Amino acid sequence: MKFIKDLTPGDRIADIYMCKHKQSATTKNGKEYYSVILQDKTGTVDAKIWEPNSDGIDEFDDTDYIDVFGEVTSFNGAIQVNVKRARKCHEGEYDPSLYLPVSSKDNDEMYKELLGIIGTIKNPYLKKLLEEFFIQDEAFITAFRKSSAAKTVHHGFIGGLLEHTLSVTKLCDYFCTAYPILKRDLLLTAAICHDIGKTRELSLFPTNDYTDEGQFLGHIVMGAEMVGDKAKEIPDFPVLLRQELQHCILAHHGEYEYGSPKKPSIVEAVALNLADNTDAKMETFTELLGNITTPGWQGYNKFFETNIYDSKMDM
User: Is the pLDDT of residue 82 over 90?
Assistant: First the structure.
């Protein structure tokens, strides 16, 4: 199988890919065609079916696996597939693990490490809250371990939410050793819970798209609500502690322009924002470099707002 990340203009493909999205469109001349997003575990690629009513094109829908024959071209500097034939595949013809992006890190090991950190929390109320989510709630645990941390940008793969959460938590744990002013139990609980709203904001793979609730509320508000609701179920949970924890979640994007409902008002919220931003940007750059085939200057990147340079060959 030729993976999407390895496609280059001029290639001919005859492989099975998952249809992430299919949409009917019309050319300027009024001719119908299909715009399709093909996916495998290495990424997605835009594809076009210019003759959708021809004998070689089967009916298929989103999330179907299709056997594609076509040519790889380039349009506006991006890879595109010109599909000549497309056949809907049956179960058993494909291995789903080849088509869904998955964290390169072991999910069981990551979750075990996260539970180990939860075991170090001394505050009985915060520890009880974490245990209610991450030990007692089976439905939440399943969603948390399977969820991505984003639709795109960073950690957009199965296990991405767990990987990102663990990285942010470990960064916050380091901050606590470097800056004794920080309340470790509060900061680490906030770090572990800061993105739990993403279990409801994004649907699981293969869709990995925004839910209605996610569109209306967003993961930050939902996460703060989830924590608040859970805290209220714990007898005598201190009101101020609940508010501080919710504030850290509400402020973890740091600025209003980045979708943060609040700006950090306590030092733990500042630390969480820095850790979240650090891990998101480092993972984004890591994924960016992982898709580069030619070292050197890569051109302007909108996310980083600068010209990106790949220095791997300098090492």
Answer: yes
